[in-house]
Amino acid sequence: MRATMTPQELADRFVRKFGSRVSNVQVKERCEGVKKLPQKTVWMTVSREDLNDAVAELISIDYPHLGVIAASDNGDMIDLLYHLQVFFGGKHEEICVVFTVQVPKSDPHVPTISGLIPGAVYSEREKQDMIGVTVDGIPDSRRIFLPNDFPEEVYPWRKDEKGIPPSMVKELWKVDRPTDRPFPPVAEPEPVEKKEPEPAQQAPSGGAAE
Amino acid sequence: MSQKKAPYELPIGPIHPALKEPINFTFQMNGEVVEKVDFAPGRAHRGIEWMGMRRNPVQILHLCDRICGICGVHHALVFAQAVEQIADIEVPDRAYYVRTIIAEFERIQSHILWAGVAAHELGFDTLFYLAWQIREESVDVIEYITGNRVNYGIMMLGGTRRDITADMFPRLEQALQYYEGLLEKMVNLFLNDKTIAMRCKDTGILTKRRALELATVGPTSRASGLAMDVRIDSPYAAYGDLDFDIVLPDVYNSEGNGDVYDRIIVRIFEIKQSIDIIRQCMKQMPEGPVLAEEKYAKLLMNLKKASGEAFARVEAPRGEDMHYVRMNGKQEAPEMWKVKASTYSNQMAWVEILQGEQIADIPIIVASIDPCMSCTDRVAVVGQDGNAGIMTKEHLHRLSVEKTRRLQS
């Protein structure tokens, strides 16, 4: 038995600790299989100033596994979703905790959590690449998935003018056969005139027969 | 030729067209010893997420199959689960079992494929041929069930597209018995071999603490003694109904210090576990349909109206696989789709486990986390004068083989 609290208790602990600074706290369950055992999830929205405190609070409960940081363009805001799991290893006890952090597009900055969870660097680098959120204090701010010659200020997951412009999209279905090629590609071979087979020459005598 | 001074840089990679994720390594070498490791993934980023956000969920599902050639059905499964949560689709019970069986057969073929690759990297090509020969059986069964050897296309939102009927069980059982008979042989060949033990024990160590901090997943973290398996932690499909435990290296009396040897143990014994899981599934399978909504037009109509966000996680052969989906109810395509494959989480561990190891150990250590690619296809050694001498994969592989021979003599 690894779990020390239920999802509701975990949510209550955050509400107690952070008060109105956490919002949208939801406890969800999803059941599959014949026995319908629940997959337990706690969702909450935290401000970016409180992000590190929230992760630290989770670490004080149980050191979490960081699944991934997902991100979504939400109009004026960018939603960053930190998917963390605690109490894994016990049978059917795991609780998934999702911290949603909203950052305005006018000031897309978020603090790094790599001081607490070193493995987060990978996902944070991806967020800088893909959605253009600057992660303050990231130990390694190089590009990760996009090539070095990818244009600056273009972010594939954005849905505004900073997203992929149509000029960068190659519509493969529009690509027709090239028109400057000979058709058919190989010219018909010229008909070869049939020649009468020459009479076989007399085999040269010699060799072992002699 | 100029004198090479330590430390020198050893770039490996970046590309091999047949692989999912070609990668570029840069090693700082001091003689034979790796001092510092850096890697740059994304050499074959196909923008699948971007493509997905312009397609409807059923189209994405079949795109998911093509994310990876080895663990594609897990991507399709996890995407289906995420969308089913958003659209409130009730999956028939029998479909959970069909999903579980196909997922476990995929695990068997993936682990055996990996075992073959590992043997090849160590220079045991006989073992490599044997492993890939016996892998055929699981691929044949997958073809028998789904019609395809890869990209099975069996998943559907709200269930599966094909059923596994009782008259198919004898063929499945035949495959399970085949693997059961070979298991002892595989344990013997991989784990009781003196040379494999010499090459793999205390090589590429990842401690439990670091495995946790670097957010590693799957057999890589379990080999470090970190009990973590989505199938047990957050039961999905039929896994909640079944009786099995997390495989840790202590199943083979290893203390689990997280070396390459422990990773072999975990994968070999997970094959055994998969056999057991499939048997339980066949025994407990409930009757009924396998698909919630057979009319695609109606399904798509409902999906178009669905709004909300959800994520789902499954245990793919390489570890946790996670999809996050957000739909807004206004358009067919999801507003956001994020794919997190298992290797994504495990790559950070490379920096840790390659440090202090020898050049000849690089292939097996890189392969030991079972990455979705093999990056050692072309290596350039850059001297101090900047002239690159090209080292081929064959050369690097030969170094590894020579080390094995040295240890044997």
Helix content estimate of chain A: 10-25%
Most strands sheet of chain A: 5 strands, mixed
Described by strand count, sense and barrel closure, the largest sheet of chain B is: 5 strands, antiparallel
Spatial order of strands in the largest sheet of chain A:
1-2-5-4-3
The run of helices and strands of chain B is: EEEHHHHHEEHHHHHHHEEEHHHEEH
Written as H for each helix and E for each strand, in order along the chain, the element string of chain A is HEEHEEEEHE
Most residues in contact, chain pair and counts = A-B, 47 and 50 residues
Helical stretch tally of chain A: 3
Q: What would the CATH topology of chain A be?
A: Beta Polymerase, domain 2
E-strand count of chain B: 10
Rg of chain B over CA atoms, rounded to whole Å, is 22 Å
Globally, the shape of chain B reads globular
> How far is the first residue's CA from the last residue's CA of chain A?
100 Å
**CATH superfamily (homologous) name of the largest domain in chain B:** Cytochrome-c3 Hydrogenase, chain B
Q: Roughly how many Å apart are the termini of chain B?
A: 33 Å
Task: Describe the overall structure.
The complex is a heterodimer of chains A (210) and B (409). Chain A is α/β, with parallel strands linked by helices and 210 residues long. Chain A has a single domain (7-184), classed as 2-Layer Sandwich (Beta Polymerase, domain 2), CATH 3.30.460. Helix content of chain A is 16%, strand content 27%. Chain A has three helices and seven strands. In chain A, strands 1-2-5-4-3 form a five-stranded mixed β-sheet, with helices on one face. Chain A is elongated. Chain B has two domains: 8-43 and 345-408, Enolase-like, domain 1; 48-340, Cytochrome-c3 Hydrogenase, chain B, CATH 1.10.645. Chain B contains 16 helices and ten strands. Chain B is globular and about 65 Å long. The model of chain B is unreliable at 16-20 and 373-390 (pLDDT under 50). Chain B is an alpha+beta fold and 409 residues long. In chain B, helix 2 (57-64) packs antiparallel against helix 3 (72-87) and helix 4 (93-122) packs antiparallel against helix 15 (362-368). At the A-B interface, strand 2, strand 3, strand 4 and helix 3 of A face strand 6, strand 7 and strand 8 of B.
